[in-house]
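Much of our argument rests on the idea that a fold can be written as discrete symbols. The record that follows shows the chain in one-letter code together with its fold in token form.
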Amino acid sequence: MTIAAAQNWARPYGAEAAAIAGRIDGRPLDGGRAFDILNPANEQPIARGLAATPDQVQQALASSARAFQTWRFTPVQQRSAILHRAAALMRDRAQDLALTLTLEQGKPLAQALVEITLSAEVLDWFGGAALRIDGRVMPMRSPGARQITVPEPIGPVAALTPWNFPALLAARKIGPALAAGCTVVLKPAEETPAITVAMADALALAGLPDGVLNLVFGNAGEISSALIASPVIRKVSFTGSVPVGKLLAEQAGRHMKPCTLELGGHAPVLVMDDADPAKAAAASVMGKSRNSGQVCTSPTRFFVQDAVHDRFLTAFADGMAALKVGDGTEPGVDMGPLANGRRILAMEELVADAIKRGAKLVTGGSRIGNRGYMFQPTVLAGVPDDAMIMSNEPFGPIAIVNRFATLDEALAKANSVSVGLAGYAFTDSQSRAVAISDRLEVGMLGINSFAVSQIEAPFGGVKDSGYGYEGGPEGLEHYLHRKFVHHA
């Protein structure tokens, strides 16, 4: 990387910006299909991206294979130090990185800054965890023998990330992979390429050897199929939709490659009659509107007990209606645009279907203006079970509020969908909290809290929400092979 590039690594957008391109062996790619990167707040192009050609994807694989033969044997202290230095670089330029993230993804600057800070913390955490990778010694079966397990990196990894948290989700794959001694070919979403380029450049400045992290943009289906089919790749890590996750799992299965799949959710929220409805509503407004509801753990299906239903619904709808929606770079904005025009169409379809089937539109329900992908924070009440939104995750700022009488009824409704990523409950009863913890079919549960994603804790779902974990020691373990050695 040149001095000029090093000085500008956190500022990929601007009048002088070149095309946003991937990285192979530390060098920007050229050629390939050009695509526009749009600011979702106004639909204006902010830069051009360059997709990798099929030959360049193969070059990235070859580079990853070469680098693995060295990186896997790099002392763990060096791997740890590089991750820590990269995290420090990201924190030093956090404001610039947050602006990049807001310009291409849309979330308000304050939320973008939180994402950058958390991404740096992920790299730091796995930099520390790298030093705690160890094996074990087992009792011998005969005199003079030894039985041990040796942790080894699983090999080059194909990492596929979406546009909703492009920095954080990339960090949650890069961090444990590099800590374990794996190399990575990262394919981010075309909507949000610049922030991942900036992260790759931060790691390069921190001393990451060329080829350990390669970055390619392009058609998701073509690139993912090429990566999974390659004998170079030994593991697949994907965050995205359930249908795509199932397709990738099928492809990986044909090649006997393990996957970590963090797929969709449709999070239920149980509001019990012993909870404070005003406090629960205020927290729910914050939880639902974060990143415009484009969060796999976003609370969506609110089941509220009869005694507090009306008070919760009024407070929640009022809070949602009061949110300021606009360009994420403007001060005072609570919620930015959706990521692309496809999300607007999806919101409109879900709202129209619910109303057609008898739901009440309490607030919102429409696009804001005709330029930029803004959509009103929306609350639907009394939504019938056959409405599309009861089984289809909206992945947007739409919430359902339905009433229930008994806990058994609420749990049956909450568990009725095919996914089980996150779930939430508001209650002041310890016995109810335990009952919900035991019976709600989710991978993560928040009681009186929406904070289910923590760096040191496992993140993963059940049922169609995928398998494997990101975060915590459980996330690191998925990038390791435990070799058993018996020495007689």
About this structure: Confidence is low (pLDDT under 50) at residues 1-7. The two ends are 50 Å apart (CA to CA).
